[in-house]
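Typical record is below.
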Amino acid sequence: MSHDTDKLIRQLSLVAFLMAERRPLTARDVKQNVEGYSEMSDEAFARRFYSDRTELLALGVPLHSQRDEFTGEELYTLRSEQYFLPPLELTDDELAALQTCLYLLEGQFAYAEPLRLALQNLALGRPAPAEAVTEGAVRVNVLGSDYSPETPGRLTKLEGAISKQRTVKFNYWTIGRDETAERTVNPYALFSDNGAWYVVGLDLDRGGERMFRVSRIRGDLRFATRRERDFRAPEDFDPSVFRGRPPWQIGDAVGEARVEVAPDTAWWVERAFADRGELDDGVFTTAYSDLGQLASWTLRQDGRARPLEPRELVREVDRSLQLVAQRHRGAAFEPAAEAPLEDDPELPERPAAPLAPERFAVLQALLAYLLARCGDEPRVDVPAAELEERFRLDREQLDEHISLLNLVNFGGGCYAIYAKLTGDNVHVEKELFGDTFRRPPRLTPLEARAIRLALEFVGPMIAAEAHTPLERVRRKLEETFGQFELRETPEPVAGSEEEKLIRALSDAIGKRRLVEIEYLPVGEEMSERVVEPYSLERRLPYWYVHTWDRTRDGERSFRLDRMRRADVLKERFEPRAGFDPRELTDVRSARIWFSPEVARWRLERGAARLLVDGAALEEAPFGSADWLVGEVLSYRGEAVVLSPDDLRKRVAKRASELRRELKTPAKSR
């Protein structure tokens, strides 16, 4: 029997013994009665018992210890009411919506298997819910452009390092300097932000807490030592400090800027950056660490933002517009040749599997499920295919898991179940103490994180389908997390306005009702549209609604974060014959050159091609010329449209116009 298998039997039997005894127990009691400990020397037992307790606590098992005031011995307890999942008052609609969440994220979500196991526990003893949405109603793409075959394996390693508080080493590519160096890090938190995965921790080589993008890790990620624990995360560590920062605030602040925003843009600035600055009388005041990034954001608003202070920001915006206009005048230059493609030596022979739930958690859930299937009867036959489907096990894995459960010992030769795989069925006999594990266990921290991430990625759709405010669904689920202090998991980003929009649009899609929206396109004026909504799409970091725009008489997709309101009208519409909102055709393509200074960031997105001089070339699709002009302006002269010629002239003209506009005096204060 392998070391890991021995450990699982010990840990499950330790939990069973403590729950069955219902009294404080000494380490001597544990050594004498729990499967796997009795044959150990005192030294080996002390080491293994400490390690097992540490791992169980990390898995969310609420082991408690206290010192006996008379003997001085340590006493251990595990109260069953703290081990099991508390009653959860989710309605059938809410549970169905959570199952829909898993359906939407299938194949897209690194945490899909822990999420599946969590929902298995939440739904234990309840009928399987029907699907809450159809495939055409909503689409999800949460992988992000930097998600690679290596990502699941790296997330798995980092999850383990955070849970066990182990120091890790890895080679890291710093994109700004284009340098790769080894880092030694105590990882504190792992989260998704703006469509990319990040790990935050103490950088032992350079000092200070730093954030690392997982996709920029090169090669293997490994533990730095063989110790069972290397560090303790600071009690006051708050991962939210590192999350949701705009590009100009990544790093230590070096100054404060003031930017005047147009009246029809002020509401969006307040919604998007309320916790990153202050909006007062049309002026946005924000701290900055990177003046260039703040200049890029200002230019991206295409005249709807005017830099006021500091003078360096005003000068950088003016310099950038001058360079944009200069590089778009006259005939386009011929870019360098494409660099030859290089084989990626890091690409694995086969992609890593999605992040797997802990085997301990799978065995807990499987045991609870088998006992629940027994109900009040002493035995039952369960189709093997049913268990394979629910727990994502093949036949060999199922047989192995059942064999392990047969060894879970309450002490004194008392077991939970006897189960045997025979043909296409699993025969289950409930033992004397079997009902002890009949209820579902609490969620592990990994399962809790999976639900939190799912709520963040598609939570508003869950709330819309369940006809329940998202905060109520989230609050109910948070209560099931028990005593977990998920300090390494930032709170889900609140988005009450976004939730209201999704609820309205989802309702309109289902009822085929027209919707009047108030929309602020990037770099354009606010406009009102009447649209036929066909589908919602989650493409990190934004939500989109795909429509037929009756006001503009064409297919349009709208970002919900730039939608001020969406009012469902009484008038209904008939779906247009042959119109597929997932295949928008009103799209042109522009050939854009990116200088070596910014090429690395475009190449990281995956669509650009590297040139021999270090620049990059990209065929960029676009539906709105105004949108693309704003994108080019935001690169401050480091992006140049080579074709089509009419778009190239349009960029040059707009850069010159905007430079003149921004030189006119700002409104008096």
